[in-house]
Amino acid sequence: MTSILRVHPHPDGISCTVVGAAGDPSPDQVDPWRTSALGAVDEIGRHQRTHVWVALVGVSPSGMQGSDALGQIKATDVGPLALAPGGVHMREFRGQDRVDSHFITVSHNFPVVVTGQVETYHWDPVVPVAQAQLSRLCALLTLHRGQLWEPRTLPIPQGPNGSVLKIPTSVGPEFPSPHGKEWTGEIPPGTGTWRLPPWVLEAWQRLDDDSELQTALSAYYEAVRLRRRHPSLSLLTFVAAIEGVGMRSVPDATCDCHPECKHRKGVAEKRFRKALKTVLTQKQVKELAGPLYDQRSHTGHRGTLFGSEQVLGYGGHEDPFQVNPYFHFEAVQLGRLEQIAHAVLVKVLSEPAA
Question: By the number of CB atoms within 10 A of the CB, which of 45, 47, 150, 168 ranks highest?
Fold first, then answer.
């Protein structure tokens, strides 16, 4: 064939033009393109298939020291995802980011294997869908357990004979084991199991149906992730998560200074206070809301930092006569705000859907 096919995209589809080298169009130069185009249209949607993926989630090493006392998760389904115990007692060494520090923390935890599936043509679109599902799952686990949960691997395709996910028994630089015993990752005798509460199991559909609640949960999860390195941004985001819950009962309002005014009233702080009242007394709201919202506004509108991010996380040496200047903000105020955001979200997710 000497002709070519030109494809022209339009907002409502495509059109095709056959272009020849010279002379009038002949059937042998046009008909093969027409037949191929009809065949291609007929094949659309026939090659979608189910891609099964697996990934590992667990307690973040940045938020845990020591051993996970609750043990392994009880196998269950959360929305479209299947959760199963990893069957490994994973040891993890974590050093400081600076090269001049030799401080190492050691943690032990029980990772969870997550399995999901996506209907699509090929693997590339699977990963962003799976990552979004893992983000929601880890947000729910973080909210339930009070510890930061994160994906510990990227989603990978499940093999034809089942999972090909390899769970390491030890992560990080190796050190000699106590008493000369090699770390095998075996589950210790007497290790318990834990179950997810009903509100977590039922949350997936709630979040699918309520985008504002999903936004508030995502903000809470991001605030927990920010807390260690960026405490001021963490406070701002915790406040935003609480506001997001309050938004469900305090809608946008138009200014009523005169009939023709089209400006919107500022209702953000009202939403914050409204959500606080679902878990706090009126007296507690009055004591906490103003200072917390003022700090949120200083950071959000001026870039003011209140925590140890000003000194790159340095809190000073241990000294009985020296108080960490950031302790009150990070441990007291931010810690209290995290507890409140946790309570607000658990309450709304535990209630029957409106």
Answer: 150
Identify the CA nearest to 193 among candidates 60, 89, 66, 69: 69
pLDDT tens digits, 90-145: 988 876 666 676 667 888 899 999 999 999 988 999 999 999 999 999 999 999 99
The CB density around residue 183, as the number of other CB atoms within 10 Å, is 15
Q: pLDDT for 190-204, tens place per residue? A: 999 999 999 999 999
Phi and psi of 104, rounded to 5°? -125, 135
Which burial class, exposed, middle or buried, applies to 168 when counting CB atoms under 10 A from its CB (0-12, 13-18, 19+)?
middle
- Residues contacting 51, CB < 8 A, separation 6+: 117, 118, 119, 120, 123, 126, 157
- pLDDT of residue 211 exceeding 70, the answer is yes
| Cα–Cα distance list, 264 to 119, 257, 261, 296 (Å) | 43, 11, 9, 21
Is the CB of residue 148 less than 8 Å from the CB of residue 224? Answer: yes
| 81 CB-near residues (< 8 Å, 6+ apart) | 114, 115, 116, 133, 137
Residue 109's DSSP bridge partners are 90
> How many CB atoms lie under 10 A from the CB of residue 228?
16
pLDDT by residue (tens digit) across 310-342? 998 876 655 666 677 888 999 999 999 999 999
- The Cβ of residue 227 has, within 10 Å, a number of other Cβ atoms equal to 23
Q: Which two tokens stand for residue 242?
A: 């609480």
* 3-class DSSP state of 173: coil
Distance CA 3, CA 138 (A): 55
Asked whether 21 and 3 are in contact (CB, 8 A), the reply is: yes
Higher pLDDT residue, 176 or 234? 234
Distances, alpha carbon 225 to alpha carbons 59, 147, 235, 269, 296, in Å: 12, 10, 11, 24, 17
